[in-house]
Amino acid sequence: MTGMEYRALDGTDLKVSVIGFGASPLGNEFGAIDADEGERAVRHAIDSGINLFDVSPYYGRTLAEQRLGKALAGRRGDVVLATKCGRDDVNGFDFSARHVAASVEESLRRLRTDYVDILHAHDIEFGDREQIVHETIPALKTLKEQGKVRFIGVTGFPLNVLADVAVRGHTDVVMSYCRYNLLVRDLDTELTPVLREHGIGLLNASPLHMGILTECDPPSWHPAADEVKQAGKAVAAICRGYGIDVSTVALRFCLDYPHAASTLVGMPRCSQVDANLEALIATIDPALRAEIDRTVAPVLNRVWKSGRPENHE
Ligand code: NAD
Q1: Is any ligand 1 atom within 6 A of the Cβ of residue 211?
Q2: Is residue 32 within 8 Å of 38, Cβ to Cβ?
Q3: CB 275, CB 247: distance < 8 Å
Q4: Is it the case that residue 2 has pLDDT exceeding 90?
Q5: Are strands 6-8 and 15-17 parallel, antiparallel or unpaired?
Q6: Fewer beta carbons within 10 Å, N or C terminal of the chain?
Q7: Which residue, by CA, sits nearest to atom 31 of ligand 1?
Q8: Contact in structure between 88 and 94 (CB atoms under 8 Å)
Q9: Is 24 in the pocket of ligand 1 (CB under 6 A)?
Q10: Strand partners, 29
Q11: Is 262 touching ligand 1 by the criterion CB < 6 Å?
Q12: Which residue minimizes the CA distance to atom 34 of ligand 1?
């Protein structure tokens, strides 16, 4: 078995595996999955040393939490469990204190536990920034005092919003996605230095750029520009030429980033868990890396707008 590496998550007393299990595909967000296989993937991940599991009521509109809760039966003590609140549907946001308190109760029931290790406010750029700081985060802190939640955080896409809210709200952690991988590498511009200065933990999600850096097509809802999707296909072809899978290279690239305690990757199949564990021992040939960088250069850091206009970058 590949030896797992663990890193301290700043802002908490948690030690998390450098590869984390992203559970959004358990909610069929990337296409319908075999539910039994998804549960096997969860247990296989635990047996392989992965201890961080991230989910949300939003993924599959509660389906991912239900499936993850079932898969974790009897294994809750082996994992660091993170879920979210505030987002329940594509356009369904409610960051009020009342909703946060009700939402976590339902998450705990679906996840079959009486506490989660991390509770994030989900995709905060879709909310009112002052409400997040002055109402949502205080509600998360109340849950912490009640012992239902051990640590609190925020997730989202625009870096400046995450940095501003995390610092003003004194969150323990932040989860960013699609801002540090082979296609987008701008996490250091506005977020990482701020979190480091304040001792706030950083989790990096979507190392495969939500399916673009794989041998399969990304989901139809993927917000990236067509040129970025084409660049992903070109990178996959280059990796093939070097006899290595694009996902392995993409994940390895993220594991080499020292400031994120864990990289969260969605992997609803045992074979994908195994493939992603390969990244732990993989190295990227410098010639391959140079070719990837040349190919990606025209679209590097091409991001999309997310959330309310006032929260756009
Ligand atoms: P990802 O970049 O991890 O890509 C997931 C896709 O790649 C899935 O289709 C999966 O089946 C496939 N895949 C995984 N390993 C593979 C392999 N070895 N070979 C081929 N295909 C492979 O994107 P993601 O799932 O969106 O991100 C990971 C996790 O991070 C999510 O599940 C979620 O927990 C978290 N996340 C949070 C937010 C947020 O809070 N706003 C946003 C994005 C992701």
Answers
A1: yes
A2: no
A3: yes
A4: no
A5: antiparallel
A6: N
A7: 22
A8: yes
A9: yes
A10: 31
A11: no
A12: 22
In 3D, which of 267, 273, 280 has the Cα closest to residue 22? 267
Determine the residue of 81, 214, 221, 269 to mutate for testing ligand 1's pocket, defined as the one with the most ligand atoms within 8 A of the Cβ atom.
214
pTM reported for the whole predicted model: 0.98
Provide the CA 264 distance to its chain's centre, in angstroms: 4
Convert the pLDDT of each residue in 267-307 to its tens digit: 999 999 999 999 999 999 999 999 999 999 999 999 999 99
Task: Answer for the pair 125, 311: CB distance below 8 angstroms, yes or no.
Answer: yes
- Give me 199's structure tokens: 């001792």
Measured from the Cα of 31, ligand 1's closest atom is 9
Q: How far is the CA of 145 from the centre of ligand 1 (A)?
A: 32
- The CATH T-level fold of domain 6-211+247-283 is TIM Barrel (3.20.20)
Crossing angle of the two packed helices 35-47 and 270-277, in degrees rounded to 10: 30
Confirm whether 242 is a catalytic residue: no
| Confidence (pLDDT) at 116 | 99
254 lines ligand 1 (CB under 6 A): no
CA–CA gap between residue 262 and residue 80 (Å, rounded) = 12
Between helix 270-277 and helix 246-255 the angle, nearest 10°, is: 60
Q: Which position among 58, 59, 177, 257 bears the catalytic label?
A: 59
At residue 47, the pLDDT reads: 98
Distance CA 13, CA 5 (A): 16
- The answer to whether the CB of 152 falls within 8 A of the CB of 120 is yes
